[in-house]
């Protein structure tokens, strides 16, 4: 069996693990905003909880990334993270207060923080055989397939049985399935590092300057990207969609995300970081549409939201894999994730406050923040040669 075929199987199997995990926590996230509203939380609290969850989930990645590279226990740390990431989700069914639900939501984000840097480092070795944009795009497509399945399952439960609690309980099925597959995958591929050959860029001692410029650009995009719980809160509060329809809208966005990840990942392999700028120009249109009071506009906005998410998830990680030595890659993903998460937290918190004050200002902030990233991305393009990024 050729190295490329073996690597493809590794990426696909790891993609199935992510599919199960996403079905679990994205199924939950499709209703947590509306769930918090029923438990008495305000728009400001929803934005704060969602943003703080992302802050913890991304901020912790600096330590986890460094620990992963220092100990080389990539598989062990990944396994611990996946367990926490998915095991707490069904417990949301027992939450009787918004404070309890908020704590479980933050615990789920903590689990994702633990597993993501080492997982992405492992994945980066496999995708080196396939084309980084395509490889990360394929993984993201599978990831988001789960993100469609989870909300659909929750919507079905809400339809047949009613009550958000039942929606959380059903998610124990993908949670257990993903953990079992992860344990098998760990035995089949104990050393994914062997997929990737050393190149000249692998011997750099420090993270290159362009990495930090790139981080600044993506931080601006993250700050202007509304988390779905706030969107769900808006849909419920304005009576644009019912509790049953909201998960279906989220599933639509996740389906668009999956398709966009494959398309933009392949385009990245051919055209480089210019494709990310195109994705930003498309995604900045989501806020004026999503936060309207028209159902059709909301659906169109969620399509743009999904395109932006898919492009980000494939291109952002693929770019870093081409910039950073593999011995420091988990650390780089951790630092990058922390910067991204801090910006997401600040942006989500501000947008939650702006929602209670002025939706027009919320929309203006979202669009402007994303557009401000374009000059930084142009700077990255001018300083990083195409060979370094895409090799």
UniProtKB/TrEMBL annotation:
Coarse class of the protein's main subcellular location: membrane
Presence of the UniProt keyword Membrane in the record: yes
Domain Major facilitator superfamily (MFS) profile: 170-391
Gene Ontology molecular function: transmembrane transporter activity
A Pfam family of this chain: MFS_1
Signal sequence segment: 1-23
Subcellular locations according to the entry: Cell membrane
Transmembrane segments: 44-67, 74-96, 168-189, 210-232, 244-265, 272-291, 297-320, 332-355, 361-380
GO cellular component terms listed in the entry, alphabetical order: plasma membrane
CDD domains referenced in this protein's UniProt entry, alphabetically: MFS_MJ1317_like
Membrane topology: Multi-pass membrane protein
Sorted UniProt keywords: Cell membrane, Membrane, Signal, Transmembrane, Transmembrane helix
Record's keyword annotation contains Nuclease: no
InterPro entries for the chain: MFS, MFS_dom, MFS_trans_sf, Uncharacterized_MFS-type
PANTHER family: BLR5212 PROTEIN (PTHR42688:SF1), CONSERVED PROTEIN (PTHR42688)
Descriptive protein name: MFS transporter
Organism: Fischerella thermalis CCMEE 5268
């Amino acid at each position: 069996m050729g190295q490329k075929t073996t690597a493809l199987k590794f990426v696909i199997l790891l993609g199935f693990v992510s599919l199960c995990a996403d079905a679990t926590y994205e199924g939950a996230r499709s209703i947590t905003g509306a769930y918090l509203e029923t438990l008495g939380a305000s728009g400001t609290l929803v934005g704060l909880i969602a943003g703080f969850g992302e802050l913890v989930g991304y901020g912790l990645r600096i330590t986890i990334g460094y620990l992963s590279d220092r100990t080389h226990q990539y598989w062990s740390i990944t396994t611990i993270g996946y367990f926490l990431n998915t095991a707490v989700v069904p417990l949301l069914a027992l939450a009787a207060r918004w404070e309890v639900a908020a704590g479980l939501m933050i615990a789920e984000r903590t689990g994702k923080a633990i597993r993501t840097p080492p997982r992405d480092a492992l994945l980066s070795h496999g995708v080196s055989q396939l084309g980084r944009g395509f490889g990360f795009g394929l993984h993201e497509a599978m990831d988001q397939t789960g993100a469609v399945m989870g909300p659909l399952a929750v919507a079905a439960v809400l339809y047949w049985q009613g009550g958000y609690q039942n929606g959380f309980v059903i998610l124990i099925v993908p949670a257990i399935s993903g953990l079992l597959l992860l344990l098998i995958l760990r035995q089949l591929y104990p050393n994914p590092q062997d997929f990737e050959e050393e190149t000249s860029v692998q011997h750099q001692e420090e993270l290159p300057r362009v990495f930090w410029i790139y981080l600044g650009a993506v931080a601006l995009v993250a700050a202007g990207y509304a988390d779905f719980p706030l969107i769900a809160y808006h849909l419920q509060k304005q009576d644009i969609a019912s509790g049953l329809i909201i998960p279906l809208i989220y599933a639509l966005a996740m389906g668009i995300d999956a398709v966009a990840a494959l398309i933009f990942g392949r385009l990245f392999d051919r055209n480089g970081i210019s494709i990310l700028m195109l994705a930003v120009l498309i995604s900045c249109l989501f806020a004026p549409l999503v936060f309207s009071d028209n159902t059709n506009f909301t659906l169109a906005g969620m399509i743009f939201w999904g395109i932006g998410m898919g492009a980000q998830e494939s291109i952002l990680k693929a770019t870093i894999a081409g910039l950073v030595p593999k011995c420091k890659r988990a650390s780089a993903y951790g630092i990058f994730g922390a910067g991204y998460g801090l910006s997401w937290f600040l942006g989500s918190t501000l947008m939650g406050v702006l929602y209670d004050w002025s939706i027009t200002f919320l929309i203006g902030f979202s669009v402007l923040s994303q557009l401000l990233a374009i000059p930084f991305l142009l700077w990255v393009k001018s300083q990083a040669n195409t060979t370094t990024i895409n090799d």
